[in-house]
Amino acid sequence: MLFLVVLLSLACTSHSLIEVAKNTELDSIDVTEAEADVTESEDDVTLSQEDNFVIFTVASEDNDPFQRYVRSLRVFDMEKYLQVLGMNSKWLGGNMEKVGGGYKVNLLREAMEPYKDEKNTITMFTDSYDVIFLADKAEILEKFKKTGARFLISAEPYLWPDMSLESQYPEIKGTKYLCSGLMIGYTDTFWNVLNYKKIANTDDDQLFYTNAYLDAKFREANKIQLDGTSTIFHNLHGAVREIDFGFGAHRITNWEQATMPQVLHGNGPSKITLNMFGNYYPRGFDPTEGDYGKCLACDEQEGRVNVNDTDSLPVVLTTLFINERTPFLDYFINKTFSQDYPPEKWHVRIYNRVWEHADHIQELINYHVVNNPDNKLASVKIFQPKDTAKRKLMEIYEEAMYTCAEVDCGWYFAMDSVITLTDNNVLKDLIYWNKSVITTQLTQPGQYWSNFWGDVTNDGFYKRAPDYFELVKRERLGLWNVAFVNHLVAIRGDVIDSGKLSYRHKTYDDNNYDVGFSYNARKNNVFMFMVNLKKHGHLKKMNNYTTEREHNDLWQIFTNPTDWKLNYIHPSYDIFLTKQMVEFPQPCPDVFHFPLLSKRFAWHIIHELESMPGDVFAESGNNNDQRLAGGYENVPTVDVHFTQINLQQEWLKVLRDYVAPIQRRVFEGYSFNGKALLSFVVKYHENGQRKLVPHHDHSTFTTNTALNRQGIDYEDGGSYFIRQNCLVRDVDIGWTLMHPGRLTHYHEGKEISRGTRYILVSFNDP
Ligand SMILES: *[C@@H]1O[C@H](CO)[C@@H](O)[C@H](O)[C@H]1NC(C)=O
Ligand SMILES: *[C@@H]1O[C@H](CO)[C@@H](O)[C@H](O)[C@H]1NC(C)=O
Ligand SMILES: *[C@@H]1O[C@H](CO)[C@@H](O)[C@H](O)[C@H]1NC(C)=O
Ligand SMILES: *[C@@H]1O[C@H](CO)[C@@H](O)[C@H](O)[C@H]1NC(C)=O
User: C-alpha 107: how far from its chain's center?
Assistant: First the structure.
């Protein structure tokens, strides 16, 4: 909260400079070239000979916001006018969160000395980290000339830093207080202003310009004006509401003043708003084009990584975090190891804090890595609850991130077990953009709960950005600078090395390690991006998960239906939804055959039943069956009813969601109402029940799903339809026979000669 107070009082003061430049390797803009450009006359027809132009800015570091600033100039072919002052040198302007910035004035004075007498040169000064250009030189100069001023300074609604000057401010049209982050003037006049008085590096620059402006004689002599109506400059702090996305997609508009500002300044706490506008302008995203808008910035090739060139791919470290009980853990681990990336450049770490998952995780890692001779990952390490359970999340995430440096990694991926990836190119797809921090959009299916926030409240928690719904609903597809990311966070190695990122934050509690991370990134000028051009996966719901059973995921169809389908519905099921009745295989007349459940389902349900205490099948197989309402079973089998293991409701949902749509295709004109009283797993065993005598089923139609393999797990057996004189035997796992129950398809279970046969039978619409 302290942070907030400081920023609010900041008002216009740019707060955009870091005290010490950390990166000394980056080239600064070539000043001599820029000078050459300036003194050459332009052959732009709309401009006269006199319109030489220079843009000065002060920046101590070539960071993400600075690159955004330069890009905005490049869009309008104005990069050539830019002169950057103070790059990669020590900041001498004091603490910008309080007062200071006289250093900026002095740097500018020094840089302007060579031009000071040029009456025909127009000079602009802007901050850089929180500024973007929205228009080109011609428009800026034209607007400037129309004001009649020789020196124009931006305006804002807050007075800063000397409140006692309130009464001296002249009344003007629009906003009346001065903000020294943006200025433009004829060079000789600008020079006069810079020499209004002497200023120490640590004095306040805004106060310096304010004094010059409030000096009526000086103001009039030099034709100094404030841009109260946002003719050229708009400061967002305290003036976000006046700004609109504008006339169509094309320009930001100040609707209160009916102007279209050309330079936008996200001063003070309005930075996040500027980040949002910066996604669209200049030439970033056009929401009016196509069904999903057009991401213009996405088409820019410069600075992207060529991920097709395997040899030049960076070393990556992916770290998996299991912090809470997690459904579909196998799938999570499987999909991580399925990512398309050269294994010799790929390190993996796993931090599991959940005791109930410890053995399972070890088994999965043994399967994927230890016992897998093909696996050539650069390194793999698991940290189990004995190492992790008592540690703070902030520490664990911090340690994991800094492991990147230990393995010399070019990219780091933090992945929480709440994510489900459905694509194998996630690593490369994210590396491609070459952003400091990036994630792909992951959302709970059918919900607006996602892994990014477009905006945050003053204390760093979720706040809805104006375009949040368009993004989360994937109605706008592009590359988005956002205020918060979590669950899958990719970070460029050099950004970790810079020391600007951290999960630690003293005001957030440990569960908000991610809130702390984003806070630190925002504070240190590291942009976080979310890309949603391609759907890479989604988020699970974790809140309803218990671990009392062997295969708890079987019970997740209500909570995580998308994952249930991915794991337990046969991969070919969807194809059959488009088939006509005649296209369905019919091994016997009116016995339809289709893939319903996955091999994983078959294995899980058998294993679930066989690993229950005692022999859950043993009590069945008699005519007297206490599990039935009447207590009597005509044609008894050795079986387990889904009601016995509390899976009946879940199974009814399978019938409604997956069986009913197939039924409507094959038994046309009949509509299954989703009822079934008896759904059960039958076990034929060489030393137990080996067959079932001829019978009709107590159903309108029956589904009979193979759970294991004829010819391998058992010999002979099969379903024999007596009137049709037709035997069906080799049904693949998960494939299902669907046939009329009580009328036409008198049938029997043929005797097995060896092994164990499991089938899942459901009497539908009894
Ligand atoms: C990726 O970005 C970094 C930092 O801006 C830059 O140094 C590097 O050259 C970029 N990589 C490519 C391939 O352009
Ligand atoms: C990389 O491969 C993809 C798909 O094959 C292709 O669309 C893309 O243009 C390639 N990129 C480069 C830089 O060659
Ligand atoms: C993940 O599971 C699929 C389906 O069972 C399998 O084909 C694939 O080989 C597995 N991936 C890994 C890396 O084991
Ligand atoms: C939790 O599970 C129960 C029973 O399976 C279900 O009725 C309920 O809707 C689930 N809650 C959530 C939030 O999914």
Answer: 40
